């Protein structure tokens, strides 16, 4: 149900203007939401969440499995799902990030479960890993300096120069000291008190938190460590930073008052500010921020026992509930957004039709440009089974598309950054036929083809 917008709260902080608006709600559907778990059910996925989306529309996430194991799930730009292999001897893979070149970053793990009476002991041997071109690589094997006495456990972030950041741990113990690392062409740098780095921008700035129980948010600024928690606005004991853009705007969660929970927050020039000021005791996280200042995250109202978790986007002075941007007939109960790319494509996990573990893809509904077309449609015989390859051009980057061939064979995906897209349809009936393409904006095109 739509509710009227109230007066906005405008805060000016050292030259920046941040508008923290009361909720506004869309009257029209502005996003299309896709259930990625449903798409991956054909390869055996039951529950999953999507963690990252790149500029090409490729998505990566993972599925939790029995016996404390997990496996990475990848959805290509045409939404074809697949798995990746762990390092030899491991049984678990977890991903946090996919680069624009398709490289996947995360960890490969050997999980061992021991049961002693009623006790369950779980042992993890973690290795920071990445997947490129179908192969898996152990980042520990590429350390040339600074990695003495440590194990790199998990790659959490990267930048355009190839630098990586993540979690590590000491080999000697107990106690096994956790710490954050920066990996740059084989050289490992210890990030000190920033034991849990989460993201980096293109100015050699890294954010995260201490990981010491009562966590504190930190900024690592080209070698200088800044305690983001140390500010008069913060009266509680916990804060965490999760992302930073190239203007050094930082988002995360902050306990502003000792009697209240952590809530979504943004730091502008070091000043922490509440993102949900109209609720007395919100609980939640601001998780990602784009260079234009768009923020995504989630929250609920602890003073309202019936308050659901609300996935939200802060953009152009408005706080928008994500489910107000999609068709309510799709049946989503809540969504947690984990990533957003520069085209506004959002991925995460949530609940649909009462079922949790539903990875989702939210794609903006674009305006048609009038140049959408099927550039080619070629069919061939692959081992006794037809394969129809479709190339599309002229679409709006980030828009969705669906291609239907004879016999009702379908494929689809997301338009790439240059307006191009591909679909591969297997099992198309032989003979002459027509391929019909429809873009999310409403544009349609048709092209004839001939199959063996």
How would you portray this structure in words?
The strands form ten sheets. The protein has a five-stranded mixed sheet with strand order 3-28-27-26-25, with no helix packed on it. The chain has a four-stranded antiparallel sheet with strand order 4-31-30-29. The protein has one helix at residues 36-40, and strands at 9-13, 16-20, 23-24, 31-35, 49-53, 59-64, 70-75, 81-83, 92-98, 104-116, 119-132, 135-138, 150-158, 164-170, 178-184, 187-190, 196-200, 205-209, 217-221, 224-227, 239-244, 250-254, 263-268, 271-274, 282-289, 295-301, 310-315, 318-321, 332-340, 346-352, 355-364, 373-382, 385-393, 400-404, 410-414, 421-426, 431-439, 444-451. It has one helix and 38 strands. The chain is mostly beta strands.
